[in-house]
Specification:
Layout lengths: L3 E2 L16 H8 L8 E7 L3 H10 L7 E5 L5 E2 L5 E2 L6 E8 L12 H17 L4 E3 L3 E6 L2 E12 L5 E8 L25 H21 L9 H7 L7 E6 L3 E10 L5 E5 L4 E4 L3 E4 L4
Parallel strand pairs: 2-3
Antiparallel strand pairs: 1-2, 3-6, 4-5, 6-10, 7-8, 8-9, 9-10, 11-12, 11-15, 12-13, 13-14
């Protein structure tokens, strides 16, 4: 789908959800020597991840490109799931990163790094306590119940790096939730739902964490990433079921995040088994 320009007049159809200010975002984020090279805001597209992967492959985007959509009609989640939300009800964006000096074996930390950055940025700007569900979900508490308010998806862009997509429900109302387990910042009691400062805070936090990780050549211990992720991970200490490719499942207590970013489960058989990919179901509160 060809993105539509964000200047479309329909942007004022919901005055509780004003449009993002692309020019102000560029002024606040694009600077000499910084990571972010360009910030583009489009009114609607199928998937910002798909668009940015295509732009990178065609040589039309480089590291530090940011693509934001006011609405995604075919947003992607992990395991081929769809991500949909009303226009301007959240932050839906993708960034292109190319950590050439970091061994590819450590690139698997990028979704976890993004989770830490998003949680940190939202804590500062929205005043909402968030937690991370391994490997890529952002959780908030609504009425004493843990709900998913955001997700992260990483995709390789050929030899051009990695595109990281982020979706965050900001002003999604109770009657708009796609499933009862979903949440949003406003439902979690955010002190601010102004998407411009929220996006700036998240991208500045991502720039900070990415720079720290790159300076450590991707080492999760030296950069502090492994420790910080574990401290904010709601999955650790819980009994979970890992639903793995090939219709295999493992149940055990999540006891650690290892040096490769994998979730380590202690099973009933006394075995510690690392999980690198799969769907995690929380079975018992921490």
């Amino acid at each position: 789908m060809t993105p539509r320009d964000a200047s479309d007049d329909s942007r004022w159809s919901d005055l509780d959800r004003p449009p993002l200010n692309a020019a102000a975002l560029r002024r606040g984020l694009v600077r000499e020597g910084g990571l972010w090279r360009d910030v583009e805001v489009v009114q609607a597209t199928g998937s910002t991840n798909t668009d940015l992967v295509d732009l990178a492959t065609e040589g039309k985007a480089g590291e530090g490109a940011v693509l934001v959509a006011e609405e995604q009609t075919a947003g992607k989640g992990r395991l081929d799931r769809q991500w949909t939300a009303p226009a301007r009800s959240g932050l839906f964006f993708s960034v292109l990163l190319n950590p050439a000096e970091v061994p590819v074996a450590r690139w698997g930390w990028l979704p976890l790094l993004t989770g830490v950055a998003v949680a940190t940025g939202l804590s500062r700007s929205a005043g909402v306590d968030t937690a991370l569900k391994w490997p890529n979900d952002l959780l908030v508490t609504v009425g004493g119940e843990e709900r998913k308010a955001g997700g992260i998806l990483a995709e390789r862009a050929g030899s051009f790096g990695v595109v990281i997509g982020v979706g965050i429900n900001v002003t999604l109302r109770e009657d708009e939730l796609p499933v009862p387990q979903a949440g949003s910042l406003v439902l979690a009691g955010a002190v601010s739902t102004d998407r411009d400062p929220l996006l700036r805070a998240v991208l500045r936090s991502l720039e900070e964490w990415y720079g720290r990780w790159r300076a450590a050549v991707g080492d999760p211990v030296v950069s502090g990433l492994q420790e910080t992720y574990a401290a904010g991970c709601a999955t650790l200490g819980r009994v979970v079921r890992a639903e793995l490719p090939g219709e295999r499942a493992i149940t055990g207590e999540a006891v650690a995040i290892d040096g490769d970013g994998r979730l380590v489960l202690a099973t009933g058989e006394g075995v510690q088994e690392p999980v690198g990919a799969g769907d995690i179901v929380h079975l018992r509160p921490a």
